[in-house]
Write a structure and sequence with these properties.
homodimer; mainly beta; Lipocalin; Methylamine Dehydrogenase, Chain H; Thrombin, subunit H; 3 domains; 4-stranded antiparallel beta sheet; 1 helix; about 5% helix
Chain lengths: ~400, ~400
């Protein structure tokens, strides 16, 4: 072989390597916006489906997220990264553009959701075991703060973890009946404020979309507790006390979720615990205005951004049905059976599409919010939660 | 040269071409999320600055957008594309990831803003000359509909173009005192509904963030007109009639902007036209509750997503100042001079940062919403409007 030939072969080999690299680069995810992405939690396989909410189609699957049997998610402000809170204490940062796990930490033994700070720098997780919250840097998942929920009875399970304006997190202590505020506005060493007398066993909570009110549902008594975060001093106020009127409680098949409580017109609507009712509450006074009898024990009662209609799903064994309630009249305008085990309902940020997971049909359905026509389906393994990246821009989700 | 050598050279040349292509591909913009992007309108140079709102730094500049002396923007649902409405009738689609113009049409002689439909498929522009609106496909900017604002007096200037749920656009006819609804819910041939008796010369309008109310400001009389889009039939209702109480009107140096009217707690706050006052209006009854005396003629009165504080800028010659008003008490909590010609104020979607353009200092400043500390500056040529991509997920912006 001549020297020239040899040189050419080396050049060719080098170029081939470059091209191989270039081809690999071409297989990298395409340049795209992230504002219309979403994820579907596949609860039994510990995986996520990433989907395009405009084209209503699956993009990819990410596996290896552990126990997702009661999982939820928040998103970074750029809407590129999802932070997944698993039931097993796993906190996973997923890159939605490369469909890969960026970081993953096992931060507790048993967890129940989390929140991201308004500036996008801190992610917090509420833990049952050991009870308390932990706070992490969103860039690295390095631990920033560990806040044990210690009270006179030991360590309490924590629930109802929500973000509030000014780098604050609020959460409640199931065993202690307290709500704590962890304020990171001065840096990464939080100032802790403890509110006692929140009531018997707060089981979930919400922050209103303006960040003003923290509302905790109570498992141990008929009623809820609200804190107006604009007032000083902060004073828990019981609302809807005795909404069950001493009637025999039904067994609770599934705890309703409060985070999705909807502002519908001038009223909040919320699922009554253990009752086949929605409660309508004046958004200023927090007094009950009326009730709507529904098909079963409501789990989610979700309004779109227009607050016009409220979509409701139900606890087992009536969990094959959705009812849509008109928020002006409180009447039921539509009822149908999407399929077995309707677990979650998510509105598009401007409300035109509604995403519904039907676990035992292994499908997520997309409905027109106004005509109720089914527009599309995405196959998924035992889908539960559906989360659109648009949540990144909202408080209290 | 042997045949083998020749073949190798051809292979080498082919590979070299591939590598060159691959290198060009590497110079493409990096993979990134789009939820934290924003644009600054550079009004005198017909250009945009694209910036990263998390890192608070400029990414790139896009030129060639024509007359941007009164420009505004909306965004596609994926937050990748901006649609820029120029004063000269130019409608430009800009790719924020590649910093390039994708499409550009001169669709009228003189325009005044636009809107994007809730499903992201239609973009509409309000035109002074010839009066009416035009509607385009967001993918291609192909014309979908041309709706001349014809009334008994000829063709009216159109203003106050807003989106509403269900693929609808609302706009007002300056000369005719009418508001029209173009409903594209059944397809791309709109159903037009005309509301007469809106008042003397509507000059701007807003849709509330829930899409329920369309509110038009009136230039020709003291008052505004509201339409409740949830009621049938649609009935314009005059509010704040005679808020000037027959006092001598000040000359109006700059028309206030209504699109940014803020829901602050239970009240809307709005800039009084030609007066050194903010008007507070009950968000349910639309009755005036109180007023705040401010430094000059307000132009923008903008609340963050928490509605806690309202930031106000002023018309010439008092346009070097910002006042911040507490929405609970109506009192002024902060006042300072960012510099000459403060033109626009934009809150981060979760409210922690506030972006302020200071035209004659050629700078955009970023403030902490709670401490008022200046966090960063971005240089820009005569900056006016600042628009964050998070607007993609909200109605009426």
């Amino acid at each position: 072989m001549t020297a020239l030939l040899k040189s050419l072969l080396i050049i060719a080999a080098t170029l081939m390597a470059s091209v191989t690299h270039a081809v690999a680069a071409d297989q990298q995810p395409v340049l795209r916006g992230t504002g219309n992405l979403g994820i579907i939690v596949e609860r039994t396989t510990g995986s996520l489906v990433i989907f395009d909410a405009t084209e209503r189609r699956m993009i990819s699957r990410v596996e290896g997220l552990g126990d997702l049997s009661h999982a939820s998610a928040v998103f970074s402000p750029d809407e590129r990264y999802a932070f997944i809170f698993g039931r097993d204490g796993g906190l996973t940062k997923v890159d939605l553009l490369t469909s890969s796990i960026v970081h993953r930490v096992m931060q507790a033994g048993n967890s129940i959701g989390g929140a991201i700070s308004d500036d996008g720098t801190l992610v917090a997780v509420a833990n049952y075991e050991p009870g308390g919250i932990k706070v992490f840097d969103t860039a690295t998942l390095a631990e920033v703060a560990d806040i044990p929920a210690t009270w006179t009875g030991g360590r309490s399970k924590t629930i109802g973890l929500e973000d509030a304006p000014g780098r604050r997190f609020l959460f409640s202590l199931w065993d202690a009946g307290e709500t704590w505020i962890a304020d990171f506005s001065k840096g990464n060493t939080p100032q802790i404020t403890k509110l006692t007398g929140m009531g018997d066993r707060p089981y979930d909570a919400l922050v209103t979309s303006d960040g003003r009110y923290y509302v905790a549902g109570l498992f141990g008594e008929d009623g809820l507790t609200v804190v107006d975060l604009w007032q000083s001093p902060l004073t828990p106020r019981r609302i809807l006390r005795g909404y069950g009127n001493g009637e025999t409680k039904l067994p609770v098949y599934k705890m309703p979720h409060l985070e999705s409580w909807a502002l519908a017109g001038n009223r909040f609507v919320l699922p009554a615990i253990g009752r086949h009712e929605l409660l309508w509450v004046d958004a200023r006074t927090f007094e009950e205005t009326n009730r709507t009898a529904v098909y079963g024990q409501p789990v989610f009662a979700v309004a779109g951004p227009d607050g016009r209609n409220v979509w409701v799903n139900f606890a087992h064994p009536l969990n094959d049905t959705i009812q849509v309630v008109d928020s002006l009249t409180g009447s039921i305008v539509k009822q149908w059976k999407p399929g077995p085990a309707v677990l979650h309902i998510e509105f598009a940020p401007r409300g035109h599409d509604v995403w519904v997971s039907v676990r035992d049909a292994n499908v997520v359905q997309v409905y027109d919010a106004y005509t109720f026509e089914k527009k599309a389906e995405i196959a998924a393994n035992s889908p539960s939660g559906i989360f659109l990246t648009a949540r990144a821009h909202r408080m209290g989700l």
